[in-house]
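Q: Second attempt. The first request was missing the SMILES, so the protein and zinc ion are both included now.
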Amino acid sequence: MPPEIDLILYNAAVRTMVSDAPTAEAVAVAGNRILAVGTNTEVMALAMPATRVIDARGGTLMPGFYESHLHLFPGGVSLGQLNVAAIFGAEALREAVRTFAAAHPEADLLVAFGANYTMLGDDVRISRHDLDAVIPDRPFYMIACDYHTGWANTVAMEKAGLLHGRDVGPASEVVMGADGTATGELREAGAMDLLMALKSGGTRDTLGMSGLEPGPLTEAEREADIACLLAGMEYCARHGITKLINMDGNRYQLELLAEMERRGTLPCRIEVPYRIPIDAEGDPIAKAVEMTRDFATEKVSCGRVKMFMDGVFDSWTALKLEDYPDRPGFRGEPIVPPDLFARLCTEADAAGLQISVHAVGNGAVRHVLDGYEAAAQANGPRDSRHRIEHIDNIHPDDILRLRDLRVIASMQPVHPPGSAGLPLEPTVTLMGRENWPWAFNWRAIRDAGVPICFATDWPISPLDPLHAIHCALTRRPWAEGLPDPRLTLDECLEAYTLQGAYAAFDEDRLGRIAPGMLADMVLLEGELESLTSPGGHMVRATLTICDGIVTHEAT
Ligand SMILES: [Zn+2]
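A: Got both inputs this time. The predicted holo structure:
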């Protein structure tokens, strides 16, 4: 008996991502696998009475997008918050918050996200007084576009018990003003979570950012969280994404996702790491190994640890190799001390785990490479594919170390200042003029032979992979004479498919359209070449298929 053909897509411009057969016209799917790839005539000959046949009308059919770095739970939550990424000026903010507040009369805490550090003026460090002028009478909290800083109005600061400062642990800060009270600015999770605890639903969505587990929960709370994860994943499917590499993680998220898989409601595949807490007690590597053993299906897996080495430039928490231009003698601090980091890397590597570390400044990248090198020396060479997340800056010497240590560069085309609506300042000044040639330099890193996977860090930046690719292709240099860091359209598409699969050890089953591969695909409508034109693009995902199932279909 020939296998039952469930689905055929024909009349497509198939981009297979297979080097010796890069194009085709049609694809047949049996169950959750691709059965055949070929011409319309070849593939249509396989059709059976029960086969669903879809005319792609000349659209581009590609492997489903990998989103190699996102935060699903906060992303799902953000779908119900106020997005202020495009807002500049106090008046515009007041208007937006008033409308949002009126629409959410029951909210314990009004939350906005995506705020630019300079949204109220190039020289204005946002304070609670600024936000009191926006909304004085209800607790309001606004999260920066990079999620490393937040600002609250006075009512919210009082309610959270932060108005007179508080010790919030290492690497976090309640910023204090000259008058001895808090300014309203909160830096990093230790401070930010205390404010977010005011909202209904608490901070369960951000616990994974710190690697913590929630306390006892009611059935209703668990179901609310499942609904939130599902909303986030459906949003991903609408953008053609079929696999998510989550970048924060705890056991709780994996339990919810496994429950969704049992119910058959998962619209995407997802990998969730164990985020090693800063002051981890017990044996964090043993916990990651346990999570890896307990969650290991084709759709829900662990296999990885996540750490942070630094923060971001805009709050002086990025770790640099040189002094900050406005703070002589100060280069930032490593979040994990080098000795501890080397030990954690060595233990994780010995346990067969992949390691992902957030490193934005060139100093952080170097510290992470030192740790990976220590692990490789202790354990011997292995196909480890450890990753560095972001790499906003890198010292040129370290590009070759990335290659030699076979590290994967996980980068976000929507993060360079000047792209995706982000202002240039204060980031580019704090980064230092001398580092601009090595800022987000995808070209130099790829040409050195380092695998690059692309992502958005959603909800920190907009999720749409096509928007991210458009940003990558239309990026403009910050000054004359700087090297062009851009990749080609084909290279960008690879970074979202083939390279994403490689970065997740999935290259034998995902990231290409070929017989035997798992059936994860996206159909795009519109001219792909329009992604390179500066004014905007005309491409969108009209059909997403994950594991042979249609997870999004544009009407
Ligand atoms: Zn992230």
